[in-house]
Amino acid sequence: MPGTRVALTLVGAAVLGAAVLLRAPAGRAERLLFTGDILLSRQVAIEMRRTGASPFDSVTPLFHKADWVGGNLEGAIGSADACRTPDTTCFAFPDTAPVLLSRAGFSAVTIENNHAADLGREGRERTREALRHAGILALDFVHSPAFVRVGGLTMAVVAVSLVQAADGHVDSVPSVALAQKLRLARALADLVTVSIHWGTELEDWPSDTQRRVAEWLVDEGADLVVGHHPHVVQPADCVHGHPVFFSLGNHVFDQRYPETKEGLIADCTIEHGQLRCAAVRTHARRGSAMPVVTGAAPLAALGPCAVALRAPVEVAGYALRAAPWSPRGPDAGVVIEGWRDGVVRWTTRRVSVLSLQSGLAAGGERLLFSLERHPSAMDGEVGVRPHVYAVGAHGLVARWRGTALAWPLIDATLDVHGRLCALHRGDSFISPDPRDPSTRTMVYAWNGFGFSAFDDSVESASCSSTMRGLTHAAQ
Protein backbone atom coordinates (compact mmCIF):
# COMPACT_ATOMS: atom_id res chain seq x y z
CA MET A 1 0.00 0.00 0.00
CA PRO A 2 1.26 3.49 -0.73
CA GLY A 3 2.72 5.68 1.98
CA THR A 4 4.99 8.62 2.52
CA ARG A 5 6.17 8.45 6.12
CA VAL A 6 9.80 7.85 7.05
CA ALA A 7 9.92 4.08 7.49
CA LEU A 8 13.53 3.69 8.56
CA THR A 9 14.46 6.10 11.32
CA LEU A 10 17.19 8.69 10.93
CA VAL A 11 20.00 8.82 13.47
CA GLY A 12 20.91 12.44 13.31
CA ALA A 13 23.42 14.92 14.66
CA ALA A 14 25.75 12.42 16.31
CA VAL A 15 26.32 10.77 12.96
CA LEU A 16 26.79 14.03 11.14
CA GLY A 17 29.44 15.04 13.62
CA ALA A 18 31.61 12.03 12.81
CA ALA A 19 33.16 12.43 9.37
CA VAL A 20 34.25 9.03 8.05
CA LEU A 21 35.84 8.56 4.64
CA LEU A 22 33.92 6.27 2.31
CA ARG A 23 37.12 5.21 0.57
CA ALA A 24 40.62 4.65 1.82
CA PRO A 25 43.10 7.48 1.20
CA ALA A 26 44.70 7.45 -2.26
CA GLY A 27 47.60 5.04 -2.45
CA ARG A 28 46.60 3.20 0.74
CA ALA A 29 46.41 -0.56 0.12
CA GLU A 30 44.25 -2.84 2.25
CA ARG A 31 45.51 -6.36 2.89
CA LEU A 32 43.16 -9.30 3.55
CA LEU A 33 44.38 -12.73 4.69
CA PHE A 34 42.38 -15.97 4.83
CA THR A 35 43.56 -19.26 6.30
CA GLY A 36 42.29 -22.81 6.00
CA ASP A 37 41.07 -25.22 8.68
CA ILE A 38 41.88 -24.55 12.34
CA LEU A 39 41.69 -27.18 15.10
CA LEU A 40 42.38 -26.27 18.74
CA SER A 41 41.65 -29.61 20.44
CA ARG A 42 42.92 -33.19 20.32
CA GLN A 43 46.66 -33.39 19.55
CA VAL A 44 46.86 -29.64 18.97
CA ALA A 45 45.81 -29.01 22.58
CA ILE A 46 48.30 -31.59 23.79
CA GLU A 47 51.13 -29.93 21.83
CA MET A 48 50.20 -26.52 23.23
CA ARG A 49 50.32 -27.84 26.81
CA ARG A 50 53.60 -29.64 26.17
CA THR A 51 55.40 -26.72 24.51
CA GLY A 52 53.67 -23.79 26.20
CA ALA A 53 53.45 -22.17 22.75
CA SER A 54 50.57 -20.86 20.69
CA PRO A 55 50.08 -22.64 17.35
CA PHE A 56 50.02 -19.17 15.75
CA ASP A 57 53.36 -17.94 17.06
CA SER A 58 55.08 -18.23 13.68
CA VAL A 59 52.30 -16.59 11.63
CA THR A 60 51.35 -13.82 14.08
CA PRO A 61 53.90 -11.31 12.65
CA LEU A 62 52.35 -11.81 9.19
CA PHE A 63 48.81 -11.46 10.53
CA HIS A 64 49.65 -8.23 12.35
CA LYS A 65 50.73 -6.69 9.03
CA ALA A 66 47.27 -7.29 7.54
CA ASP A 67 44.14 -5.16 7.83
CA TRP A 68 41.79 -8.15 8.16
CA VAL A 69 42.40 -11.85 8.89
CA GLY A 70 39.89 -14.67 8.59
CA GLY A 71 40.00 -18.44 9.04
CA ASN A 72 37.82 -21.54 9.40
CA LEU A 73 37.37 -22.77 12.99
CA GLU A 74 36.47 -26.47 13.20
CA GLY A 75 34.61 -27.27 16.42
CA ALA A 76 32.91 -25.55 19.34
CA ILE A 77 33.77 -24.28 22.79
CA GLY A 78 32.74 -26.50 25.69
CA SER A 79 33.22 -29.88 27.31
CA ALA A 80 33.65 -33.06 25.25
CA ASP A 81 30.96 -34.56 27.50
CA ALA A 82 28.46 -32.49 25.49
CA CYS A 83 29.38 -34.05 22.13
CA ARG A 84 26.29 -34.72 20.03
CA THR A 85 27.97 -37.65 18.29
CA PRO A 86 30.32 -39.24 20.86
CA ASP A 87 31.02 -42.22 18.62
CA THR A 88 32.40 -40.05 15.81
CA THR A 89 34.93 -37.23 15.57
CA CYS A 90 33.98 -34.38 17.89
CA PHE A 91 36.04 -31.22 18.41
CA ALA A 92 35.54 -29.50 21.77
CA PHE A 93 37.71 -26.43 22.51
CA PRO A 94 38.63 -24.85 25.84
CA ASP A 95 37.27 -21.37 26.55
CA THR A 96 40.78 -19.97 26.07
CA ALA A 97 40.57 -20.58 22.30
CA PRO A 98 39.14 -17.13 21.42
CA VAL A 99 41.99 -15.42 23.27
CA LEU A 100 44.55 -17.38 21.23
CA LEU A 101 42.81 -16.34 18.00
CA SER A 102 42.57 -12.71 19.10
CA ARG A 103 46.23 -12.47 20.07
CA ALA A 104 47.22 -14.03 16.77
CA GLY A 105 45.40 -11.24 14.92
CA PHE A 106 42.23 -12.90 13.62
CA SER A 107 39.41 -10.51 12.80
CA ALA A 108 36.85 -13.22 12.08
CA VAL A 109 36.46 -16.98 11.83
CA THR A 110 33.91 -19.09 10.02
CA ILE A 111 31.85 -21.31 12.29
CA GLU A 112 29.80 -22.74 9.42
CA ASN A 113 31.20 -26.23 8.84
CA ASN A 114 30.56 -29.89 9.63
CA HIS A 115 31.98 -29.54 13.17
CA ALA A 116 30.23 -26.30 14.14
CA ALA A 117 27.45 -28.20 15.96
CA ASP A 118 29.57 -30.91 17.56
CA LEU A 119 28.35 -29.62 20.93
CA GLY A 120 24.82 -28.93 19.74
CA ARG A 121 22.98 -25.64 19.32
CA GLU A 122 24.14 -24.48 22.73
CA GLY A 123 27.73 -25.06 21.64
CA ARG A 124 27.20 -22.95 18.53
CA GLU A 125 25.86 -20.03 20.56
CA ARG A 126 28.47 -20.40 23.29
CA THR A 127 31.21 -20.27 20.65
CA ARG A 128 29.67 -17.24 18.97
CA GLU A 129 29.42 -15.32 22.23
CA ALA A 130 32.92 -16.25 23.39
CA LEU A 131 34.38 -15.09 20.09
CA ARG A 132 32.41 -11.86 20.25
CA HIS A 133 33.73 -11.10 23.73
CA ALA A 134 37.26 -11.64 22.38
CA GLY A 135 36.61 -9.13 19.58
CA ILE A 136 36.33 -11.74 16.83
CA LEU A 137 33.42 -11.92 14.40
CA ALA A 138 31.87 -15.41 14.14
CA LEU A 139 30.65 -16.01 10.59
CA ASP A 140 27.78 -18.38 9.82
CA PHE A 141 25.00 -18.69 7.25
CA VAL A 142 22.09 -17.47 9.38
CA HIS A 143 23.80 -14.18 10.20
CA SER A 144 25.19 -13.65 6.69
CA PRO A 145 26.01 -11.35 5.12
CA ALA A 146 28.22 -9.88 7.80
CA PHE A 147 29.35 -6.36 6.89
CA VAL A 148 32.76 -5.23 8.09
CA ARG A 149 34.73 -2.05 7.59
CA VAL A 150 38.28 -2.56 6.31
CA GLY A 151 39.98 0.80 6.23
CA GLY A 152 37.61 2.94 4.22
CA LEU A 153 35.98 -0.02 2.47
CA THR A 154 32.89 -2.08 3.27
CA MET A 155 33.27 -5.83 2.82
CA ALA A 156 30.40 -8.30 3.01
CA VAL A 157 31.17 -11.89 4.02
CA VAL A 158 28.77 -14.76 3.43
CA ALA A 159 29.50 -18.10 5.15
CA VAL A 160 28.20 -21.32 3.57
CA SER A 161 28.64 -25.02 4.37
CA LEU A 162 27.78 -27.80 1.95
CA VAL A 163 28.91 -30.43 4.46
CA GLN A 164 26.30 -31.49 7.00
CA ALA A 165 26.89 -30.65 10.66
CA ALA A 166 25.94 -32.76 13.69
CA ASP A 167 22.66 -30.87 14.09
CA GLY A 168 21.70 -31.69 10.51
CA HIS A 169 22.33 -28.19 9.17
CA VAL A 170 23.66 -28.02 5.63
CA ASP A 171 23.26 -25.28 3.03
CA SER A 172 22.54 -25.79 -0.65
CA VAL A 173 23.67 -24.05 -3.82
CA PRO A 174 21.73 -22.71 -5.58
CA SER A 175 19.14 -21.62 -3.03
CA VAL A 176 16.69 -18.79 -2.60
CA ALA A 177 18.19 -17.78 0.74
CA LEU A 178 21.73 -17.62 -0.61
CA ALA A 179 20.69 -15.71 -3.73
CA GLN A 180 19.00 -13.12 -1.49
CA LYS A 181 22.04 -12.82 0.78
CA LEU A 182 24.33 -12.23 -2.19
CA ARG A 183 21.90 -9.69 -3.65
CA LEU A 184 21.92 -7.75 -0.38
CA ALA A 185 25.70 -8.02 -0.07
CA ARG A 186 26.44 -6.69 -3.53
CA ALA A 187 24.03 -3.78 -3.03
CA LEU A 188 25.64 -2.55 0.20
CA ALA A 189 29.33 -3.47 0.00
CA ASP A 190 32.39 -2.63 -2.08
CA LEU A 191 33.54 -6.25 -1.99
CA VAL A 192 31.64 -9.53 -1.53
CA THR A 193 33.52 -12.54 -0.13
CA VAL A 194 32.10 -16.05 0.23
CA SER A 195 33.67 -18.43 2.74
CA ILE A 196 32.54 -21.94 1.80
CA HIS A 197 32.97 -25.39 3.36
CA TRP A 198 32.80 -27.92 0.52
CA GLY A 199 34.52 -30.67 -1.43
CA THR A 200 35.86 -34.07 -0.39
CA GLU A 201 38.41 -34.66 2.33
CA LEU A 202 41.97 -35.37 1.10
CA GLU A 203 41.03 -34.73 -2.56
CA ASP A 204 43.73 -32.46 -3.97
CA TRP A 205 41.70 -31.34 -7.00
CA PRO A 206 38.35 -29.52 -7.03
CA SER A 207 35.40 -31.57 -8.18
CA ASP A 208 33.05 -30.65 -11.02
CA THR A 209 30.46 -29.81 -8.38
CA GLN A 210 32.80 -27.34 -6.69
CA ARG A 211 33.44 -25.66 -10.04
CA ARG A 212 29.73 -25.39 -10.84
CA VAL A 213 29.06 -23.94 -7.39
CA ALA A 214 31.93 -21.46 -7.80
CA GLU A 215 30.52 -20.29 -11.13
CA TRP A 216 27.06 -19.79 -9.63
CA LEU A 217 28.46 -17.87 -6.66
CA VAL A 218 30.46 -15.54 -8.92
CA ASP A 219 27.51 -15.04 -11.28
CA GLU A 220 25.32 -14.14 -8.27
CA GLY A 221 27.74 -11.51 -6.97
CA ALA A 222 30.70 -13.09 -5.16
CA ASP A 223 33.93 -11.20 -5.86
CA LEU A 224 36.15 -13.63 -3.95
CA VAL A 225 35.53 -17.27 -2.96
CA VAL A 226 37.57 -18.88 -0.19
CA GLY A 227 37.13 -22.64 0.32
CA HIS A 228 37.99 -25.16 3.00
CA HIS A 229 37.22 -28.71 4.24
CA PRO A 230 39.38 -31.03 2.07
CA HIS A 231 42.31 -30.55 4.54
CA VAL A 232 44.71 -30.45 1.59
CA VAL A 233 45.50 -27.62 -0.81
CA GLN A 234 43.53 -27.53 -4.05
CA PRO A 235 44.68 -25.26 -6.91
CA ALA A 236 43.25 -21.75 -6.99
CA ASP A 237 41.68 -20.54 -10.22
CA CYS A 238 40.23 -17.48 -11.91
CA VAL A 239 36.54 -18.28 -12.38
CA HIS A 240 34.67 -15.86 -14.63
CA GLY A 241 37.31 -13.25 -13.80
CA HIS A 242 37.20 -13.76 -10.01
CA PRO A 243 39.70 -15.49 -7.69
CA VAL A 244 38.51 -18.79 -6.22
CA PHE A 245 40.60 -20.63 -3.63
CA PHE A 246 39.01 -24.08 -3.81
CA SER A 247 40.81 -25.28 -0.68
CA LEU A 248 43.42 -23.59 1.47
CA GLY A 249 44.22 -26.88 3.20
CA ASN A 250 45.03 -27.06 6.89
CA HIS A 251 46.28 -24.10 8.84
CA VAL A 252 46.45 -25.65 12.31
CA PHE A 253 45.52 -29.34 12.36
CA ASP A 254 46.89 -32.60 13.72
CA GLN A 255 46.40 -34.88 10.70
CA ARG A 256 49.49 -36.92 9.86
CA TYR A 257 49.42 -37.34 6.07
CA PRO A 258 52.24 -35.31 4.46
CA GLU A 259 49.78 -33.43 2.25
CA THR A 260 47.81 -32.29 5.31
CA LYS A 261 50.93 -30.56 6.65
CA GLU A 262 50.88 -28.08 3.77
CA GLY A 263 48.66 -25.01 3.78
CA LEU A 264 47.95 -21.79 1.93
CA ILE A 265 47.09 -18.36 3.25
CA ALA A 266 45.13 -16.40 0.66
CA ASP A 267 46.85 -13.00 0.48
CA CYS A 268 44.60 -10.41 -1.17
CA THR A 269 45.31 -6.72 -1.67
CA ILE A 270 42.87 -3.93 -2.46
CA GLU A 271 44.59 -1.02 -4.19
CA HIS A 272 43.56 1.56 -6.79
CA GLY A 273 40.01 0.23 -6.76
CA GLN A 274 40.99 -3.37 -7.56
CA LEU A 275 41.27 -6.65 -5.69
CA ARG A 276 44.19 -8.93 -6.53
CA CYS A 277 45.08 -12.15 -4.76
CA ALA A 278 48.24 -14.18 -4.22
CA ALA A 279 49.11 -16.74 -1.55
CA VAL A 280 51.62 -17.59 1.16
CA ARG A 281 52.69 -21.16 1.84
CA THR A 282 52.80 -22.71 5.30
CA HIS A 283 54.19 -26.01 6.51
CA ALA A 284 53.90 -27.94 9.77
CA ARG A 285 56.76 -30.32 10.48
CA ARG A 286 56.14 -33.98 11.15
CA GLY A 287 54.75 -34.52 14.64
CA SER A 288 53.58 -30.91 14.95
CA ALA A 289 50.43 -29.00 14.07
CA MET A 290 52.00 -25.54 14.27
CA PRO A 291 52.37 -23.83 10.87
CA VAL A 292 55.50 -22.01 9.73
CA VAL A 293 55.50 -19.58 6.80
CA THR A 294 57.73 -20.94 4.04
CA GLY A 295 57.32 -18.25 1.36
CA ALA A 296 55.12 -17.04 -1.44
CA ALA A 297 53.19 -19.57 -3.51
CA PRO A 298 53.23 -19.09 -7.31
CA LEU A 299 49.62 -18.94 -8.51
CA ALA A 300 49.81 -18.26 -12.22
CA ALA A 301 46.05 -18.72 -12.66
CA LEU A 302 45.36 -15.66 -10.51
CA GLY A 303 47.76 -13.37 -12.37
CA PRO A 304 45.12 -11.87 -14.70
CA CYS A 305 42.39 -12.08 -12.06
CA ALA A 306 41.81 -8.44 -11.06
CA VAL A 307 38.39 -7.58 -9.63
CA ALA A 308 37.14 -4.00 -9.74
CA LEU A 309 35.48 -2.84 -6.53
CA ARG A 310 31.79 -2.19 -6.80
CA ALA A 311 30.50 1.30 -7.38
CA PRO A 312 28.16 2.24 -4.53
CA VAL A 313 24.43 2.09 -5.12
CA GLU A 314 23.64 5.78 -5.39
CA VAL A 315 20.13 7.20 -5.17
CA ALA A 316 19.23 10.90 -4.98
CA GLY A 317 22.90 11.76 -4.45
CA TYR A 318 23.39 9.36 -1.51
CA ALA A 319 25.69 6.36 -1.71
CA LEU A 320 24.27 3.46 0.28
CA ARG A 321 26.44 1.24 2.44
CA ALA A 322 25.83 -1.17 5.29
CA ALA A 323 27.05 -0.22 8.74
CA PRO A 324 29.51 -2.66 10.33
CA TRP A 325 27.62 -5.70 11.53
CA SER A 326 27.04 -6.70 15.14
CA PRO A 327 25.49 -9.98 16.39
CA ARG A 328 21.95 -9.44 17.65
CA GLY A 329 20.19 -12.62 16.58
CA PRO A 330 19.37 -14.23 13.22
CA ASP A 331 16.65 -11.71 12.35
CA ALA A 332 18.54 -8.62 13.50
CA GLY A 333 18.88 -7.31 9.97
CA VAL A 334 21.13 -4.52 8.79
CA VAL A 335 21.68 -0.81 9.34
CA ILE A 336 21.94 1.20 6.11
CA GLU A 337 24.07 4.33 5.92
CA GLY A 338 23.56 7.22 3.51
CA TRP A 339 26.86 8.80 2.43
CA ARG A 340 27.41 12.13 0.71
CA ASP A 341 30.74 13.91 0.16
CA GLY A 342 32.55 11.16 2.02
CA VAL A 343 30.49 11.60 5.20
CA VAL A 344 27.65 9.55 6.72
CA ARG A 345 24.62 11.86 6.56
CA TRP A 346 22.04 9.46 8.01
CA THR A 347 21.58 5.89 9.15
CA THR A 348 18.46 3.76 9.35
CA ARG A 349 17.25 1.71 12.26
CA ARG A 350 18.15 -1.97 12.10
CA VAL A 351 15.74 -3.65 9.70
CA SER A 352 15.30 -7.27 8.59
CA VAL A 353 16.16 -6.78 4.93
CA LEU A 354 16.58 -9.95 2.89
CA SER A 355 17.61 -8.26 -0.35
CA LEU A 356 17.90 -4.77 -1.78
CA GLN A 357 18.01 -3.48 -5.35
CA SER A 358 17.98 -0.17 -7.16
CA GLY A 359 16.22 0.01 -10.49
CA LEU A 360 12.65 1.18 -10.06
CA ALA A 361 11.73 4.62 -11.36
CA ALA A 362 8.63 6.79 -11.13
CA GLY A 363 8.37 10.26 -12.68
CA GLY A 364 12.14 10.57 -12.84
CA GLU A 365 12.54 9.49 -9.19
CA ARG A 366 14.78 6.47 -8.60
CA LEU A 367 13.50 4.04 -6.00
CA LEU A 368 14.75 1.09 -4.00
CA PHE A 369 13.07 -2.31 -3.96
CA SER A 370 13.56 -4.47 -0.88
CA LEU A 371 12.40 -7.81 0.42
CA GLU A 372 11.88 -7.90 4.16
CA ARG A 373 10.69 -10.49 6.64
CA HIS A 374 7.68 -9.29 8.65
CA PRO A 375 4.52 -10.75 10.17
CA SER A 376 1.27 -10.18 8.32
CA ALA A 377 -1.32 -7.92 9.96
CA MET A 378 -3.99 -10.32 8.64
CA ASP A 379 -2.89 -13.72 9.94
CA GLY A 380 0.35 -13.07 11.84
CA GLU A 381 2.35 -15.31 9.51
CA VAL A 382 5.98 -14.19 9.19
CA GLY A 383 6.71 -14.00 5.50
CA VAL A 384 8.61 -12.27 2.71
CA ARG A 385 7.18 -8.79 2.13
CA PRO A 386 8.08 -6.45 -0.75
CA HIS A 387 8.77 -2.76 0.00
CA VAL A 388 9.56 0.26 -2.15
CA TYR A 389 11.51 3.26 -0.77
CA ALA A 390 12.54 6.68 -1.94
CA VAL A 391 15.79 8.19 -0.65
CA GLY A 392 16.05 11.68 0.80
CA ALA A 393 17.82 13.90 3.29
CA HIS A 394 16.17 12.06 6.19
CA GLY A 395 16.87 8.51 5.05
CA LEU A 396 14.55 6.01 3.39
CA VAL A 397 10.92 6.98 2.90
CA ALA A 398 8.30 4.29 2.29
CA ARG A 399 6.53 4.61 -1.04
CA TRP A 400 4.82 1.23 -0.95
CA ARG A 401 4.57 -1.62 1.54
CA GLY A 402 2.79 -4.61 0.09
CA THR A 403 1.71 -7.90 1.58
CA ALA A 404 3.08 -10.36 -0.96
CA LEU A 405 1.76 -9.29 -4.37
CA ALA A 406 -0.81 -11.68 -5.94
CA TRP A 407 0.28 -14.85 -4.08
CA PRO A 408 2.51 -15.64 -1.11
CA LEU A 409 6.05 -14.67 -2.05
CA ILE A 410 9.27 -16.68 -1.98
CA ASP A 411 11.62 -14.33 -3.84
CA ALA A 412 11.58 -11.41 -6.27
CA THR A 413 14.23 -9.59 -8.25
CA LEU A 414 14.37 -6.66 -10.64
CA ASP A 415 15.49 -7.21 -14.23
CA VAL A 416 17.45 -4.74 -16.34
CA HIS A 417 14.21 -3.06 -17.44
CA GLY A 418 13.01 -2.50 -13.89
CA ARG A 419 10.38 -5.24 -14.15
CA LEU A 420 9.81 -7.38 -11.11
CA CYS A 421 10.30 -11.11 -11.58
CA ALA A 422 8.60 -12.90 -8.67
CA LEU A 423 8.74 -16.49 -7.47
CA HIS A 424 5.52 -17.34 -5.63
CA ARG A 425 4.36 -20.25 -3.53
CA GLY A 426 1.77 -22.48 -5.17
CA ASP A 427 -0.92 -21.79 -2.57
CA SER A 428 -2.98 -18.62 -2.24
CA PHE A 429 -4.03 -16.10 0.40
CA ILE A 430 -7.59 -17.46 0.19
CA SER A 431 -6.44 -21.01 0.86
CA PRO A 432 -2.98 -20.76 2.44
CA ASP A 433 -0.83 -23.88 2.67
CA PRO A 434 2.90 -23.11 3.15
CA ARG A 435 3.65 -26.83 2.77
CA ASP A 436 2.43 -26.82 -0.84
CA PRO A 437 5.58 -27.71 -2.84
CA SER A 438 4.43 -26.10 -6.08
CA THR A 439 5.59 -22.65 -7.23
CA ARG A 440 4.69 -20.13 -9.91
CA THR A 441 6.36 -17.10 -11.45
CA MET A 442 4.87 -13.74 -12.37
CA VAL A 443 6.21 -10.53 -13.91
CA TYR A 444 5.08 -7.18 -12.49
CA ALA A 445 5.58 -3.55 -13.51
CA TRP A 446 5.76 -0.62 -11.11
CA ASN A 447 2.90 1.81 -11.78
CA GLY A 448 3.84 4.50 -9.28
CA PHE A 449 1.35 3.29 -6.68
CA GLY A 450 2.06 -0.43 -6.59
CA PHE A 451 2.78 -3.38 -8.86
CA SER A 452 0.58 -4.53 -11.73
CA ALA A 453 0.82 -7.82 -13.58
CA PHE A 454 2.88 -7.38 -16.75
CA ASP A 455 1.65 -9.58 -19.58
CA ASP A 456 4.55 -10.11 -21.95
CA SER A 457 5.54 -13.56 -23.22
CA VAL A 458 9.23 -12.71 -23.59
CA GLU A 459 9.48 -11.21 -20.11
CA SER A 460 7.54 -14.14 -18.65
CA ALA A 461 9.83 -16.67 -20.29
CA SER A 462 12.87 -14.81 -19.08
CA CYS A 463 11.46 -14.66 -15.53
CA SER A 464 10.71 -18.38 -15.52
CA SER A 465 14.23 -19.11 -16.72
CA THR A 466 15.74 -16.85 -14.04
CA MET A 467 13.81 -18.55 -11.27
CA ARG A 468 14.02 -22.13 -12.59
CA GLY A 469 17.12 -23.07 -10.61
CA LEU A 470 15.73 -21.53 -7.43
CA THR A 471 12.30 -23.14 -7.96
CA HIS A 472 13.74 -26.59 -7.32
CA ALA A 473 15.63 -25.31 -4.27
CA ALA A 474 12.44 -23.80 -2.85
CA GLN A 475 10.51 -27.07 -3.02
Q: Determine the number of helices (DSSP H or I, runs of at least 4 residues).
A: 8
Fraction of residues in β-strands: 35-45%
The top-level CATH class of the largest domain is Alpha Beta
The CATH architecture of the largest domain is 4-Layer Sandwich
Low-confidence stretches: 1-26
Tell the overall outline. Answer: globular
Share of helix, binned: 10-25%
Count of distinct structural domains? 2
- In CATH, the homologous superfamily of the largest domain goes by the name Metallo-dependent phosphatases
CATH topological fold name of the largest domain = Purple Acid Phosphatase, chain A, domain 2
Mean pLDDT across every amino acid position: 89
Distance between the termini: 29 Å
Task: State Rg.
Answer: 23 Å
> Describe the biggest sheet?
9 strands, mixed
Number of strands: 30
Sheet/helix structural class: alpha/beta
